[in-house]
Amino acid sequence: MFALQPSSATDKPSLYGELAQQLAALIAGEADAIANAANMAALLYHGLPDVNWAGFYLAKAGELVLGPFQGKPACIRIALGKGVCGTAAARQQSLVVPDVAAFPGHIACDPDSRSELVVPLLAERRLLGVLDLDSPHRNRFDEADRAGCERLAAIFLAELARHPGALAALSSH
Fold first, then answer.
1. Lesser CB count within 10 Å: N end or C end of the chain?
2. Mind listing the pLDDT tens digit for each residue in 20-57?
3. pLDDT score at 105
4. Which of 49, 136, 139, 134 has the alpha carbon at shortest distance from 99?
5. Residue 140, Cα to own-chain centre: how many angstroms?
């Protein structure tokens, strides 16, 4: 059984270091991409302060489809290039959005969200989906959050890469 460890971190790099250790332990040896995504979403939702949504959108047939998450019900499908998630996916680069109201074409799945961080999940330049974090506070996310979440996404993808077919299964669910 895994027990979420309360953080003793006093800064974001330390917090993400703790989360990285917990994530690696949580998903070690597990080949099921959806189970690992669900646990990672829960770890982030409960492990990061001031987050009201944490989860995944998975790339399927040229769009993003809702995957495992924690938070309020969300938009089910997002077109590539639309909203923060679709834009990050199309560009294949992380986006930190300090104020979602100022982002052209923002999709308001949760009207309480004020800032957002999206990290694309890439395997050999192929888009598998995105990791999406929302906060009810403007300016919640910064470059330390981006770097920390990119590190966590890399741990997630590396564990799946150890299991034949697990990465392909991520976008076929």
1. N
2. 999 999 999 999 999 999 999 999 999 999 999 999 99
3. 80
4. 139
5. 15
Query: Which residues have C-beta within 8 Å of that of residue 89, sequence separation ≥ 6?
Result: 57, 59, 64, 80, 81, 118, 120, 127, 129, 130
State the Cα angle at 13 between 44 and 103, rounded to 5°: 65
Does pTM surpass 0.85? yes
Select from 165, 160, 156 the least CA-distant residue to 43.
156
- Say how many domains are in the chain: 1
Question: Residue 19: which CATH number?
Answer: 3.30.450.40
pLDDT at residue 111 above 60? yes
On whether residue 7 sits in a domain, the answer given is no
